[in-house]
Amino acid sequence: MRYQDLLKIFGVMIVLGLLVSACAAPATPTAPPAAATPTPPPPTATPIPPKENVAVYAHYTTYPDIDPSISFSDDSAVVSNAYETLVWYNPPGSAELLSPGLATSWESNEDGTEWTFHLREGVKFHDGTDFNAEAVKYSVERTMGMEMGASYIWWTVDEIEVVDEYTVRFKLSYAAPLDLIASSGYGSWMMSPSCTEAHDSDWLNEGHDCGSGPYIIDSRERGQRLVMTRFDDYWGGWEEGQFHKVVFDVVEDPTVRQQMIEAGEGDVTLLLARENYEALDAREDITVYTNPSFQNLLGLLNHKKAPLDNELVRQAISYAFPYDDLITNVMMGYAAQAHGPVPTGMWGYSEDLFQYTYDLDKAKDLLAQAGYPDGGFDLLLTYASGDLDEAQTGELWKAELAKLGINLEVRAMSWEPQWDLGISDPAVAQDIFLFYWWPDYVSPYSFLFSMFHCEEEILFNLGYTCDAEFDEMIDRADALSGSDRAGAERLFIEAQEMLVDNADAVFIFDVANTHVLRSDIKGYADNPAYPHVVFFYKRSR
Predict the structure, then answer these.
(1) Which end of the chain is more exposed for a tag (fewer CB within 10 A), N or C?
(2) Residue 35: phi, psi to the nearest 5?
């Protein structure tokens, strides 16, 4: 019987006793009554706090910079949960290309040289200060001033005007798609001016943040773990089932990452052995998600060095590439042959672009036309050491080129020496540079400008191409991107046709994003605009 029920019975007995006493003759008192012992109040139940809902991301590498103005690598997995952009880029297949973030709406003038953003009210930064137009101006100017990471995406900004507390206007030195730029997963994060001014990059990288996002960086053990806790005052509010805490465990060994997911010690991971995906997906407690990414692999061909300075030779080695063999047997179907340099699912992509196919007879004919009927030359291919996909790509290609009398040296190099060779004198540099690319902000211009636009000083144009007509076309398309996106897309596709016809590179494959999650994680959706980012606020258990 409950203690409260006993008290009720005891109370009834007291009342009955008093009624009986009132009917009896009064007794002669013989001694003063003893002081009554007070009845203790019933105990108050201690409320049981709700069980913490914790998500664990078993991540394959560490996070070099979590300063939002500098972050330009895998640290975006963390930064994207602590900070927010003015605009969000939507996943492929969405009804709209962009959606509101910290800006609720935006517009530009007719030629795309002036952009006005109307800001969300009621947003708090993690230090308790308000998000407003001054914070936008500060954030962009801080990132531009750092001259690191992806700060270059703002180079077109000439002036930032605070129109009122929740309106900010950008004046550009030349037309640019500032809505796309403002959605970038690198360099477009908004931050608290007071918080950031009070600290420095070292403080941020130790495990702190100055954002407005749904999670606050709570602690960091470099190379091991980073913990985030939910921001109770987040403007989006909170519902049952959302995560209270997110733990990023750095686990470089893919076998250990897989074991964590299988044992339920991890909730999300990526980059496991492809041959294991089918068995993992067959389990009821695990789901494997495969989606298009905005990342592709290219072989950039040296236009400044014989024999690849000859268009016919470039076309020949494009026909000598074993596309189907690589995609089926190495990538195990988790990739698709590329249609030019813009990847599947991105605006500016076209399935109508010509594709080279594996055809050694066609390759032999082109080599003969170029004056190399028996091959008889050497080529050097470089790739990033440790990348097994690139290594196998090189070896497969080597075997096919040998059938044409071409000797391909496949050389593994750590990134810095590989890049140093690439930006050296093209006359002594590699012949083929295997190279992954993914965008800063999602535009074909990111691919076409970075890898194929004329450069006085070599940066990423590691095929050393230079075509004034091509440059003018993509520059014009970029300027149109803010005011006439359909017109810009047509120009970008036309520019890609030029690259494919000239065999300016070998467009190898568009790789898929594959993520492995515990099946009780709900609402998962991949967005290739933010590579390998899990927006935990939108997920639940």
Answers:
(1) N
(2) -60, 135
Residue 434 belongs to domain spanning: 293-513
Helices (H), 436-467: 444-452
Token couple for 139: 């954030």
Residue type at position 253:
D
Rounded to an integer, what distance in angstroms lies between the CA atom of residue 145 and that of residue 156?
Answer: 13
CA 250 to chain centre: 17
Which residues are CB-neighbours of 198 under 8 A, at least 6 positions away? Answer: none
Do 355 and 420 fall into the same domain? yes
Percent share of the chain, pLDDT over 70: 91
The CA radius of gyration of the chain, in Å to the nearest whole number, is 32
Q: Is residue 46 a part of any domain in this protein?
A: no
User: pLDDT grade, residue 50 (50/70/90)?
Assistant: low
Q: Is residue 10 part of a domain?
A: no
**CATH code of residue 506:** 3.10.105.10
Residue 300 CA to its chain's centroid (Å): 24
pLDDT digits (tens, 9 = 90+) for 63-81: 889 999 999 989 999 999 9
91 falls within a domain: yes
Q: What is the largest CA-CA distance in the chain?
A: 136
Angle, alpha carbons 478-464-306 (nearest 5°): 145
Query: Is residue 35 a part of any domain in this protein?
Result: no
Pairing of strands 432-437, 406-413: unpaired
Confidence of residue 498 (pLDDT cuts 50, 70, 90): very high
CA 247/CA 250 separation, integer angstroms? 10
How does pLDDT run across 225-248, given as a tens digit for each residue? Answer: 999 999 999 999 999 999 999 999
